[in-house]
Specification:
It contains five helices and 13 strands. It is of the alpha+beta class and 305 residues long. It has a single domain, classed as Lipovitellin-phosvitin complex, beta-sheet shell regions, CATH 2.30.230. It starts with a helix and ends with a strand.
Length: 305
């Protein structure tokens, strides 16, 4: 009888321990700098007027996040310390890298000029990006520094770079990478939902369901599944000097390891697949407009160094 009671007590303790709740959260130290290095490989497939036009693209970047102040929010100075891009295009390959010493390559010079130009970010303890500031100022001052570039081309470059490095795009990109922590305490196997808006060349709504799949001595292990759908009510955006709109939807799978001590992401892997159509509005370059199919598959990995 005692053995049965003892076994029952052990079972109760086991269940209680299994259901014990934890609160993964950022625990960053004022004055410290944290890093996030990301590599994103994407394959874009599109057919325009019967012509297959595929793009194989890899974007690499490293960012530093220095904690300027910490209370209920984290106030951070953020810098790109490295930016690079490689593209395999139907008419040849191109590569731009901020470490390049080639002064004749304007895009390499732009990548280099983007580095070590601080902007500000305000982040909650659950990793939500409250605000991004000074990103447009960073882009404007950087482009204005190219004295040999004509004024009209400068404005085009500012528009294009803002779609990737402006406040809205930076906010959504950082949220995609960092906004995975729950707002409340959770137990192992619990799930929570996070909704984000993607801004940039493509505007979309993302609904992610995350689950705490394991707790180790050093880490929280989180798995996520998400759906993505573009905002079909959004207006056309100027992309490559043409008014364009994306009508796409898809899915994303995420596996994230979070450091217990800091709440910072130790590593993450994202797989995304979206497809749909792209509309080009009637314009002098494309009279009558054009609609064509497009699909994008991508894999993104991030580490904390």
């Amino acid at each position: 009888m005692k053995k049965i009671l003892f076994a029952g007590v052990l079972a109760i303790i086991s269940v209680a321990a299994h259901a014990q709740k934890v609160k993964p959260a950022l625990k960053l130290i004022k004055g410290n700098t944290y890093y996030l290095s990301t590599s994103a490989h994407s394959i874009v497939k599109q057919t325009i007027n019967g012509q297959v036009n595929n793009i194989d693209m890899t974007i690499d970047g490293k960012m530093s996040f220095k904690v300027l102040n910490a209370d209920s929010l984290y106030y951070m100075e953020v810098n790109y310390t490295k930016v690079g891009m490689k593209m395999q295009l139907p008419n040849g390959n191109v590569a731009f890298d901020s470490d390049s010493k080639d002064t004749t390559n304007i895009m390499a010079r732009i990548m280099s000029a983007l580095t070590n130009k601080p902007f500000s970010a305000t982040i909650t303890k659950s990793g939500r990006i409250k605000s991004i500031a000074n990103a447009e100022t960073m882009i404007t001052s950087m482009i204005d520094g190219f004295k040999e570039v004509p004024a009209a081309q400068k404005e085009q470059l500012k528009t294009q770079l803002s779609q990737s490095f402006g406040s809205g795009a930076l906010k959504s990109n950082l949220e995609m990478a960092m906004s995975v922590l729950p707002e409340t305490a959770v137990a192992k196997n619990d799930k929570w939902t996070i909704k984000n808006n993607m801004e940039g060349a493509m505007s979309a709504k993302i609904v992610s369901v995350y689950q705490l799949v394991d707790i180790t001595q050093q880490s929280y292990v989180i798995h996520g599944n998400a759906t993505l759908e573009t905002d079909n009510t959004a207006d056309y955006k100027t992309i490559s000097n043409m008014p364009m709109k994306y009508n796409m939807k898809g899915t994303m799978v995420a596996d994230v390891i979070v450091d217990k001590a800091t709440g910072w992401i130790s590593s993450s892997k994202l797989k995304q697949s979206i497809e749909g159509t792209v509309e080009i509005k009637d314009n002098p370059k494309v009279p009558g407009g054009l609609t064509f199919p497009m699909s994008v598959t991508s894999e993104t990995s991030s580490v904390d160094h």
